[in-house]
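worker-3 :: picked Mediator of RNA polymerase II transcription subunit 14
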Amino acid sequence: MEIGVQNGVLTNHDRDTRVNGINGNAIVKREPSPEKGKGASGISTLNGTYHGAMDVDAPQGQASSKALLSDDRSKLDDLPEEIVHITQNFMPLGLLLTRLAQKSHNAIQDKILEMAKMPLPQVMNGNSDTHSNPLDDTSEENLAKKTALLHFVQDLHAKWVKALVITEWSRKADLVSKLIDLKAHIDVQMFKYDGALDQIVDVKRNLLYARLPNPDLKTALQVLSTGDVPWMPELNYIEPPPLTPQEQLKWIDNLNTLLSIRLSLDDHDKIPFHFRDYSVSSGRVTFKVKGEFEVDLTIADEDFEKQFWFIDFRFLFTPAPKELSEGLRAFLEAKVNEALANEGLDGCYRFLHEFVLTHKINEFSRQAREMSRDRWTDSVRVERLNRAISIQYWASRYLQNGPKSWVILGVNSGRKTTNLVDAKATSSLSLRWFRDNKEVKDIDILLDSDVVSAEHLLKRVIARHVGHILRTIYDKLQSKPRFMKREAAMSLHLDKDEPMLSALEVQLTYCEKITAKIDPITGFFAMSPHSRVVYEGEHRLNYRSKDPAEEGLISIEGIRCVSTMEELNRRGKSMGWIGSPRPIKPEEVRTIVNSRDGVQSLWFKREGWDPRWYLMLSLSLSGDQWWLVELNHSQPNAQIKAYMPLPFSSTDPNLSDKFFTNLTTFATGVLSQLTDIGVLRSRRIAHVIRQVPNSQLSPQVKIPAVYVKLSEVLRASSGKRQWQKASWAADDVRIVFGGIQRFVPEDSKQRQSTASHPDKRLTVFAEARVLVSDKKKFSLLKGNVDHDVTYNPRSGQFSLRLRAEVGQSIVDSLANRLQAIDRLVDFLEAMSKHGRRLQCQSVTLRKVVFSYGDPAPEDSQTGIIATGSASRYQVVLDLARGEEISIKLQKGNPHLRVLDLLRRLVNSPIGFESLPFWLSLTLPMLRGLNLVEESWQNVQLNNQGSFTIFHRALEWLTLRFNFPSPQGKPPRQVWFDVRLKSRNEELWWFLWRSDKDKDAKDEFSSVLQPIWNDRGEHWRGLKSSAAAKTADGIEELLIKVSEALKPLTELDGSEVETKLESKGGGDVVVID
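worker-3 :: tokens ->
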């Protein structure tokens, strides 16, 4: 680029203001010293700088010169106002001496290095005289070193002598300053005198042209009188006749023909490349250069070797004068004709082309200066650089030491580095762009050749600068995972001509977006929509950032974080989510969120949660993430105990009531699931987490299901190390989260208090599903097995609805329900083994109702069981009391006498499933006891005897028969034991005497021996005892024994003894 003598030199836009009037920005004015007039100090100043070190001779003659100095100062201080005080180009003496000392030090170092490189004296024959004096060394090398050192010292000495002289002058700095003022004033006056003399001479010289010659009265009189002057010479010129229009057209056609022939034949190769666009008409040729000018030329001779002549010139761009002024036209005519005469058309083009380029630069400069005084005040600075112009924009954008940006518009010669001649090569306007103190290469800013507009040019440059800033911010945001994964929307629109149309749009939240633009005049960011948060971020980016392209990313992310925080706190508070200060240090947050980008964390608490649990939202350009964090508050500083990322979508959520409802459900469900998993791990229960569809929750809430082993849950609840796998169901139990609701107490009083004072606690619901292996076993179950347990006969699946407060595990409730079902299954299996003897009427986990007794007869044709003809007894098992089962029997049930034994049985480890067995087994026996007891009621009322039953166990009881006895003698009693035993792999009831006289030949053995020796259909005698079948024989046997002993109640003991003695005591006595 050609910019005059400053070709390739940068402007002073990137240089700071310096002292001593450099760049015309600041002038250091010399102020009088505060010690002015104090000669006793011996220290003089120059421009306010003390130089006492140089004033070695100051104390000498101080007293003698004190009066003289005071008189001179008084006279000099009274100088008239016409004398101007000179302060320009003053330099502090201390700065001068410092720079001279630094220069001397550097010069000495350079000289030492230079002398070290000089060759050493040569040693003859490899020997050196170690005893020779170096002062006597007269070798050429030594002399050269000494000469160089001497010249260097002389030059340095001369400089320091000058400094000494200046220092001596500085002791009288005030007087010297006044002398300089007087000398400058005298020089100005002398210049004015010389100028006045020159003006007088010029006036005298110009008067020669103003003086009129003496009038020629004789010639005037002759001409006025006769009209002819005989003494005037006659040239005999013949005036040509005027040309007619036809002749004028002919001449013009001839000129057109000559011009066409000359340009087509003779000058075809001489026409410059940029003059190829021409037209011939009206006797002239018009050369047109697009975007620059057009010039009209003609010829004055038929000889084609003669030159072209200038006729007219017009600019082909705007703004430009439509008509040339007389002075400009004359200047152009002379210069163009001279160029045509010397260099032909090529010289004409080069001159006019360079003239137009200079005119365009001047026009750009004029418009730029108008801009700096108009709308672009304080934002644009213009500087002329000979033929080039520098325009700095955004001058007030940064601080004093901030980066600067400017453009230099100049002329590029178009020459190439190679020696090849290119006919198309020509100079042109070129633009150099310096952005933030760095030149931008390969810019695509085209200069409009038809329209010269400094504002449009500057807007195009600023549009590129704005595009660079916004593009840098966009690329940095796009490289972050948040935008790379399209978790947030972002768009960039750039306009190359209008910077205000360029905008960067970034999504802040679900419903809020921010649009960042840059004001082309000031360079400040303008963000919308306007709010307090956006204004703070905009202000920070405009006034506190050194590089908005680099720091814009941080500012926009900060605006997003604050906007998200405010919106979450504002909307979440009404939904039970309360913002909390960060309870841990930022370093500990880094352990949770592994991100290289800056992280902002928002902490929330939920009403109804344990204070140890927090919900944290980490905001960063790596992506937003929700976290469930458990803290340990036992120490002075809270510590992280556990944390888990919540698989929420990282996209900005719609912070509606539905979102916070789903958030509460999801976070509470995960918290509850973590609590359950912790309990499962502590009890060493294997579990697996799988994602399954859950129709009970919203589609946005996806909480995985937990699978546990049925056998391990039952093992852990029973406390045994091993547990046999349940055969009635699959071993996998699926636990699915079902939702949450407000805590509702079961007690009515608590419900009333909760109605007046709402309880903020939350209850978690979960559904556990158990698939049975054989549906036939559960044919008796239909619908609701309990208020929270249902059974689906079609799918063969138990559904357990579990409930627990937030923070409490449902594992215990699950174990209890599974134990109850397992116990119920054992009972149903036991009942199925007894056929029609036991019939279930109602089966739930809280209560089981069934009947037992004689099997009902069945019609062989219809298969209908006639229940009315059989005697049956109803049993109610109350399972709602937890671990203890209560058994209830209806009135008249034979088993009422063994109710305690049945209760003990049913609460034993294997008693629940064995209850049907014992009820069926003991029913005939107990029914027989009832009959015996009823037959002995009249005997007992007549005090003739009694019958007592002692139940040791369900399978073992003792019977006692009491009979009347004489006074003074022991009571007459007989004891029987009835016990269940196995005989030939079959259960039989055995009955025998168990009293101490069982082997004696007494009255009882007399009446019982026939029974021991007899046998029936379902029972048989065993010589000293009897055995009966469990179904029907025991009842018959008990009645036979009772009937055999009953006659003994009619006799007292003395009568029986008399009869026994009369018969010999050994025979059996039959009593009628």
